[in-house]
Amino acid sequence: MNADVAAENPSALSLWNDPTVPVDARVDALIAAMTLEEKTAQLFGVWVGAAADGGEVAPHQHDMEEAVDLDALLPTGLGQLTRPFGTVPVDPALGALSLARTQARIAASNRFRIPALAHDECLAGFAAWGATAYPVPLSWGAAFDPDLVRRMAAAIGRDMRSVGVHQGLAPVLDVVRDARWGRVEETIGEDPYLVGTIGTAYVQGLESAGIVATLKHFAGYSASRAGRNLAPASMGPRERADVLLPPFEMAILEGGARSVMNAYTDTDGVPSAADENLLTGLLRDTWGFDGTVVADYFAVAFLKTLHGVAADWAGAAGTALHAGIDVELPNVKTYGAPLTEAVADGRVPEELVDRALRRVLTQKAALGLLDPDWDPLPAALDGTAPDDPEALRGRVDLDSPENRALARTLAEEAVVLLANDGTLPLGRPRRIALIGPNADEPTAVLGCYSFPQHIGVRHPGTPHGIGLPTLRETLTAEFPDADITYVRGTGVDDGDLSGLDEAVRAAREADVTVVALGDRAGLFGRGTSGEGCDAETLDLPGAQQRLLDALLDAGTPVVTVMLAGRPYALGRAVAESAAIVQSFFPGEEGTHAIAGVLSGRVNPSGRLPVGVPRTPGSQPGTYLGAPLAHANDASSVDPTPAFPFGHGLSYTRFAWTDLTAHAQEAPTDGEFTLAFTVRNTGDRGGTEVVQLYLHDPVASVVQPVQRLIGYTRVTLDAGEARRLTVTVPADLASFTGRDGRRVVEPGALELRLAASSADPRLTAEVVLTGAARHVDHTRRLHATFVRKPATT
């Protein structure tokens, strides 16, 4: 049906509005009816902020973009609304009303009554005022618990969907290559298998709630030179294929992610936003991805302003569109008038516009945005009176008790006990000296993409919207009989030493000293961790090492607690602290989790998703290094970490015994089956994290000394044992060969069952036989663990 005819006869159902018609036919009919301007209007977003009074959203004025005139844009339609909740503080119910009113206006303004797709950030929870702040992704990695992360993501997705949001810009699947990079806190860890499995679980949870998950940053962002944000990425195709791409591959093939966001960086001179081989050849033609590719904010314009591969805005638009970027975010810059003019004069084929448009409209159809019964009012406002905004205030709870329970469980599982001489758990100390810049700071548990740190800091005086108990408050509750003396000592990064003497006096008068150190999350230099907050070295920021050393000299046992976004070298504390507790921005329930570990109420089970360096200048480096990347006689620099990837202690002990292998040999298309027993030999229940590493001693290209290929959490009561069986497909031994194809080669392997990358407990020596075998994205990606009660 012609669009003008439909407009004159609203009761007539247009083909594209008919949900009984196949989606492809609906989309084709809609594209055929659109003008060029209406087509390109679906390919960009507008950055807005919900109105605090429930009125329509207001365009966000960003210093990198010109002001946007919504009145001028809306008659041709609008593709996306950028961060309606994540731009200004607004009551969630009034924000939902503001978004609904704007969506009604958008639909009423264009010929086809198409609303916008609304997206928001959800890196560590929905980035909206009053929404639960969960632990950051680095803590997800520390938990080694995909099932729990899946449940958390589903809860985040339900909250987002309830207020009218359709797409979430998460998870970050970048693999840590240099811990100096400011965005380490946003990553899941330094191992691609850990990142892939945890990230895929997050995608599955978010998508289960109807939210479009967006994988980022595709690909290579974390491999930037010297850990500097947006710096060029120095890596060859094999490192990209074997380290950086597998998490994206897994999240697409197994997670069902419906969107991908490009990386800012260039690799060997080719920006990701202009890389057709990456965004179309690999992503779509090889992996079969059929969702949308959205630009990281301003990335299309950066092709002109930062990368210099486009001469003007039209050139940037054509380059990105040709490579495979479907949607320009956060605002219209190049995909509006410059793109329309370039298509009209033949510089950009209209077929490229139609290709991107088909993907966008297909996604909108799947979300119900083209259906005749689409209603702008979201589920959270069902049964309310939207004509009385003030009556809605406080009616939507984005920080429910169920959310907080999930947040606390994840925070507890993610706390890593790095060292302990027996001082922990503390029992019932009479006098505790609580010292440090993060001991009494509410936001010390939050990452840079939490609402309070990302947006709230620009609105001083606005309440956080969620409860953020400090470590001082939770320790006081955890140890009600103790006399707790608090001294700040120094700031996170101010270098102030005026409180040093008072801190030392407090320590000397106490039975135990708890010193809380680490980071302050922020953006672009406003913090010590976060986007644009890169570090020159992994020294503790400011004067924190001076404070720590002075406390170690005071003679009282020191428990070092880290609340940070990256690992830091701790100097003397590695050997001299009575205990070290590492927590990576554990979210709003995080200090409860830390206090529980200190008291013994929580038996720690977290494991390091990134190694803790011994020296501050040992970057870049990860456990995945080849032999020459590890300590050797050819260099005076020893990069061996103080605490390795996968490390973590417990308050109980575990024995690993009785390894058997079904067979020592298997063909290159076969599998190995191992069985072993894990027993809790301590006097309390606990959880062991069994890690499976592969060591390939001889290969046609240099391999890492070992790499993680599987893991499982095993929870056992005191004295309890489990017999574990693990099936290991030969496909897990594959790597990118000299010809650029993934290959499984015959030869000897070691399968190491380990408590960390530096603590193998049981090793099976096996052999792959037969001819080398090439595999692709259809290969098996996982080892399979099965648990049974032990027979003895």
Could you explain the architecture of this structure?
Helix 5 links the parallel strand 3 and strand 4. The strands form six sheets. Strands 2-1-3-4-5-6-7-10 form an eight-stranded mixed β-sheet. A six-stranded mixed β-sheet has the order 11-16-15-14-12-13, sandwiched between helices. The longest helix has 18 residues. By secondary structure, the protein is an alpha/beta fold. It comes from Streptomyces griseorubens. Keywords: Hydrolase. This is Beta-glucosidase.
What key phrases describe this protein's structure?
792 residues, single chain, alpha/beta, six-stranded mixed sheet, 23 helices, eight-stranded mixed sheet
Count of runs of 4 or more consecutive helical residues:
23
Write down the overall geometry: globular
- What multimeric state do the chains show? single chain
- Binned, the helix content reads 25-40%
Spatially, the strands of the biggest sheet line up as 2-1-3-4-5-6-7-10
Overall mean pLDDT stands at 95
Q: What is the beta-strand fraction?
A: 15-25%
Q: Main beta sheet, described? A: 8 strands, mixed
Structural class: alpha/beta
Question: Radius of gyration, Cα only, in angstroms?
Answer: 27 Å
Extended strand count: 28
